[in-house]
Amino acid sequence: MAGQKMLKFTKVERDMPEKRGASERREDFNEIYAEFATRKAEEQASRCSQCGVPYCQSHCPLHNNIPDWLRLTAEGRLQEAYEVSQATNTFPEICGRICPQDRLCEGNCVIEQSGHGTVTIGAVEKYITDTAWENGWVKPIQPRQERTESVGIIGAGPGGLAAADVLRRQGIQVTIYDRYDRAGGLLTYGIPGFKLEKDIVTRRNEQLEAAGVEFVLNCNVGEDITFDAIRGKHDAVLIATGVYKTRDLKAPGVGVDGIVNAIDFLTASNRKSFGDDVPEFDDGTLNADGKKIVVIGGGDTAMDCVRTSIRQGAESVKLLYRRDRANMPGSQREVQNAEEEGVEFVWLSAPKAFVGDDHVEGVKVSKMRLGAPDASGRQSPEEIEGADYVEEADLVIKALGFEPEELPKLWNTDGLEVTRWGTIKADFTTGKTSLDGVFAVGDIVRGASLVVWAIKDGRDAAEAMLSYLDSNLTVAAE
């Protein structure tokens, strides 16, 4: 009977949830995709071929049991589908919204390779957990037994929150320290609402707080509290700060007003959406309204900046990227959404200098071509001599990626080893660092990466921390 519900990819075409029209979605920061209806979710889930070796699962960082929860959805067993989904993923409704499925699970779907169009895995994942919340299937975190050991987590982003969830379910006392006034890290302040509405994040924060997780916000480690004090207060510590230092751009004129960092621009926009007082937004410093915007970069952060600028009422929005469309690291789905909304992509273009005395007036652009492959296998961009021109701009946003802060120096701590890139040196499986009882996860270990990898790291490190705490108990008992 179950087999009759599946393998329908030859009869049922791929279909995404309805997407609001570009002219409508330009006017607000609401998510652009509607929810699947139950019948549509079951229909799309039924397209799964139930592979013997599911590449969707193997290419998911969390190794989510995708075929099983697709089958359960197709059979109308939605609560069971949710249980399977959440068994490996702390925040499936967030991953369903912001994961680049076209590069991960959906991009490796077997029926996609056979020309039938991939299963809409992300949309079904989002639907399953949203429905679970609506029906009360998402239960409060209730440890079977409280333990006396405590863990301090530095950073309330996805890695830190995922670890807190795992630890708290085992009865560990958890305190999270974060520099911002709201928990969530980039989920709250970095990703725009049209990709991830903020009540989705707030709901998870409230779940953790109700479970007994203590949040110490507006807390800069190294200033408001020392790293050594956190170590002394807790039996183990997890560093999950992420990376927020913007990569520098060296070019003549880069220091003039009107050239801003992506993280500052996005944070100001998100704060404004919360109703906060944001002077830099109100005075126009971090506001695209009525301006000619140029964004420099090619990743998902650049996509967030151009699409935010459109919604703020920019006169024009252009993105400069030094390679072509096929070599862009950002999601192709996001590129399509941005183009629909009115963003102009200027491929094979790189900033050479900035025009303007007191305030930026334009970007001197070098036209590029792709040459021989570099060490990563990607073709290296080469400047075309004599093809420079000036792109007018009232506001230039640098979305060039992020680098780690110098944590040992900022925290005035010895013995915390870092790599030559400045990331914390930690075991990729356990998150163990060079300091006893100190673990690290997410971007501060990997470099700038995906939310799903931070969740994976947080869950893995939490398990390793539990083993560490258990071993210490054993030693104490002896």
Write structural notes for this entry.
Helix 5 packs across helix 9 and helix 7 packs antiparallel against helix 9 (121-134). Strand 1 (150-154), helix 10 (158-169) and strand 2 (173-177) form a beta-alpha-beta unit. The chain has helices at 2-5, 22-25, 38-45, 55-58, 66-74, 78-88, 92-98, 110-113, 121-134, 158-169, 186-189, 198-210, 227-233, 262-274, 279-282, 300-311, 332-341, 407-410, 443-446, 451-477, and strands at 150-154, 173-177, 214-216, 236-239, 245-246, 259-261, 292-296, 316-320, 344-346, 349-355, 362-373, 379-383, 389-392, 395-398, 402-403, 438-440. The chain has 3 domains: 2-134, Orthogonal Bundle (Fumarate Reductase Iron-sulfur Protein, Chain B, domain 2), CATH 1.10.1060.10; 150-243 and 404-477, FAD/NAD(P)-binding domain (3-Layer(bba) Sandwich), CATH 3.50.50.60; 248-402, FAD/NAD(P)-binding domain (3-Layer(bba) Sandwich). The mean pLDDT is 94. With 478 residues, the protein is α/β, with parallel strands linked by helices. The strands form 4 sheets. The protein has a 5-stranded parallel β-sheet with strand order 3-2-1-4-16, sandwiched between helices. Residues 1-25 are annotated as: Disordered.
Keywords:
FAD/NAD(P)-binding domain, 15% strand, 5-stranded parallel beta sheet, 478 residues, Fumarate Reductase Iron-sulfur Protein, Chain B, domain 2, alpha/beta, NADP, Helical_ferredxn, oxidoreductase
